[in-house]
Design a protein that fits this description.
It is a single chain. This protein has a single domain, classed as Rossmann fold, CATH 3.40.50. The two termini are about 10 Å apart. The longest helix is centred in the C-terminal third of the chain and has 14 residues. It is globular and about 45 Å long. The strands form 3 sheets. The chain has an 8-stranded mixed beta sheet. Strands 5-6-10 form a 3-stranded mixed beta sheet, with no helix packed on it. By secondary structure, the chain is an alpha/beta fold.
Length: about 200
C-alpha cells in the first residue's frame, strides 16, 4: 500500500508520517503533484492558517491532481485544516476558494469562549462511522483549532462541542476528514488511522 502524505511545506507532516509508519505501512511525503496519481491512500494534514494551506496547494500545482485523485476514488483523509479545505470557503481566508468537495463555509467558533479550542475533547457520533469503528464512545481526541465546519451536511459522522457543535468527523464515499489530530490522540487516534488505512475503499 502506497500512502501519500501531502507535504505543502507547513504543518505537522512529520508527526503524521511517523504515526502511520508505526502502523507498519509505507509512507511517502511529497509536494510533487505527479506522485498523487500513484497513491493508494492520500492524507492532507494541516496546522496553522487556512490561507497558507490553500495558497501552497495552488502554488505547487497540487489542487487539480488532488481533486482528480479523489474523484477517481482514492481514499482521502483530511486532518484539521485538511478537513476544512474540503469546503467551499472559510472565514479564516474569505478571499480564497477551498477544494469545494462539500458545500458550505468553515466558520469561527464563538468569540465568547476560550480560543483556540486546544486540548482533549470527546465526540458525539451522529451515524455509523467507518473511521470510529471499534473505538470506545468515551474516547478523547486532541483538538487545536479556532475555525470549524458547521453541523448540518450529510457528510458528518460525528460532532464535537466547544462553544457550539461542529463537524469533528466527516465521511462521504472515499472522502474522510477529522477536525482533531489523530497522530496526537494516543491509542484512539492510532486506531482511527488504522481504520482509514485498512478499511477505507
Amino acid at each position: 500500500m502506497n500512502v501519500v502524505v501531502i507535504d505543502y511545506q507547513a504543518g505537522n507532516v512529520s508527526s503524521v508520517a511517523t504515526a502511520l509508519r508505526q502502523l507498519g505501512v509505507e509512507v511517502t511525503t511529497t509536494s510533487d503533484a505527479a506522485e498523487l496519481a500513484h497513491a493508494d491512500r492520500l492524507i492532507l494534514p494541516g496546522v496553522g492558517h487556512c490561507a497558507a494551506l490553500v495558497d501552497a496547494l495552488d502554488a505547487q500545482g497540487i489542487r487539480k491532481p488532488l481533486v482528480d485523485a479523489i474523484s477517481h476514488g482514492v481514499p482521502f483523509l483530511g486532518i484539521c485544516l485538511g478537513l476544512q479545505a474540503l469546503y467551499e470557503t472559510s472565514d479564516e481566508a474569505p478571499d480564497l476558494v477551498g477544494l469545494g468537495l462539500f458545500k458550505g463555509k468553515v466558520t469561527h467558533l464563538p468569540a465568547n469562549i476560550k480560543l483556540p479550542h486546544m486540548g482533549w475533547n470527546q465526540l458525539r457520533p451522529t451515524r455509523a462511522s467507518l473511521l470510529l469503528k471499534n473505538i470506545s464512545s468515551d474516547s478523547y481526541f486532541y483538538f487545536a483549532h479556532t475555525f470549524a465546519a458547521p453541523v448540518g451536511g450529510p457528510e458528518s459522522s460525528a460532532v464535537c462541542h466547544h462553544g457550539r457543535e461542529f463537524v469533528a468527523v466527516l465521511e462521504d464515499k472515499n472522502i474522510f476528514g477529522v477536525q482533531f489530530h489523530p497522530e496526537k490522540s494516543g491509542a484512539p487516534g492510532a486506531k482511527l488511522l488504522e481504520n482509514f488505512l485498512r478499511q477505507a475503499a
